[in-house]
Amino acid sequence: SRDIRLAVIPGDGIGTEVVTEALKVLEAVGTKIEATHYDLGAARYHRTGETLPDSVLEELRGYDAILLGAVGDPSVPPGILERDLLLRLRFTFDHYVNLRPVKLFPGVETPLADTRPEDIDMIVIREGTEGLYAGTGGVMRAGTPHEIATQESLNTAHGVERVVRYAFAKAQSRPRKKLTLVHKTNVLTYAGDLWQRTVNRVAEEFPEVTTDYAHIDAASMYFVSQPERFDVVVTDNLFGDIITDLGAAIAGGIGLAASGNINPDRTAPSMFEPVHGSAPDIAGQGKADPTATILSAAMLLDHLGRHAEAAKIEQAVSEDILERLSGWASRTTHEIGDDITARVSS
Ligand code: NAD
Ligand code: IPM
Ligand code: MN
């Protein structure tokens, strides 16, 4: 098969460190990759004032996929890189499915008592292009004691239906065939009603899938007290953001949590990145776990139909994790990358 044309955006902080390791693993697994690095993030912003020039955005559209480390830096006001770089990519390339597996690998320590790998095996499908991330709203009487800040949640019938339909299809393909809508229909009545009605309607097309509902507050509790309740979770952009950090925590930590920003219609490249951010507190120290990014690279291969290579990486990670039981905390970012690279090469 032909080479994968990959755009790489290492970004800020530990983003560059973890992406280096993921690229090493991709190369070692035998995937022919033509990678082009894009210098976007805090450094570029300070140097030129640019976040994501239009010409770069259009160039990125031409790739098979994008691998991103993380963006965000304490030297840049919050929101600039996050909105104008990361969210702009997700919105422009119509990444309406943000796929975030929450899976406890054998041998990984979870903070939950008496919890086995089979108890935490779900996939969160987070809507990626709408909701409170839409950026609508504004400020009136700014800077006065009477300032009013509104931030609106945008939910369209089209946007909700397409992600809900994807989630049902995903549930249908899994052994348990269970879909849970997570929202806050008891308070967010306009948006919640649209989500619930959409789930009810699409459910009729998937008679084998069991549907369930939980409010976001209760769902957060169940993630900790009864994670086995969940198989496929579908939720809006902000709830999905929050609950997947919680998911990462119960499944062994943010250093293991992978994600894919998927454009299922393949009208633009999908983008793969760890769930975590640029972790300024540990950046440059070789302390970051690159596993989340390596697993995101496996999701990338899977998306491009390279299923055998994806499975090989997952297997290598799973074996590497088992070995962590003895003294894993002492390995550096490079060492973890090297160990997983060695496993996929053999
Ligand atoms: P964070 O995920 O960067 O860090 C949270 C905590 O987890 C920190 O203590 C960090 O050290 C730890 N951590 C994160 N990744 C780790 C890894 N691979 N190995 C070991 N420990 C790890 O979240 P934050 O501190 O809230 O945000 C920092 C910056 O990152 C902000 O600018 C934020 O906007 C940005 N951010 C970007 C993305 C992204 O690019 N997708 C995601 C989340 C946050
Ligand atoms: C994530 C991050 C982003 C989000 C931020 C950095 C915009 O937290 O990928 O989970 O909120 O989606
Ligand atoms: Mn997040």
Automatic annotation (TrEMBL):
InterPro entries from the UniProt entry: ICDH/IPMDH, IsoCit/isopropylmalate_DH_CS, IsoPropMal-DH-like_dom
Record domain Isopropylmalate dehydrogenase-like: where: 5-340
Family annotation (SMART domains): Iso_dh
Superkingdom: Bacteria
Enzyme class: oxidoreductase
Enzyme Commission numbers on file: 1.1.1.85
Coiled coil residues, start to end: none
Keyword Heme: no
Keywords, alphabetical: Manganese, Metal-binding, NAD, Oxidoreductase
MF annotations from Gene Ontology: 3-isopropylmalate dehydrogenase activity; magnesium ion binding; NAD binding
Cofactor dependence: Mn(2+); Mg(2+)
Name of this protein: 3-isopropylmalate dehydrogenase
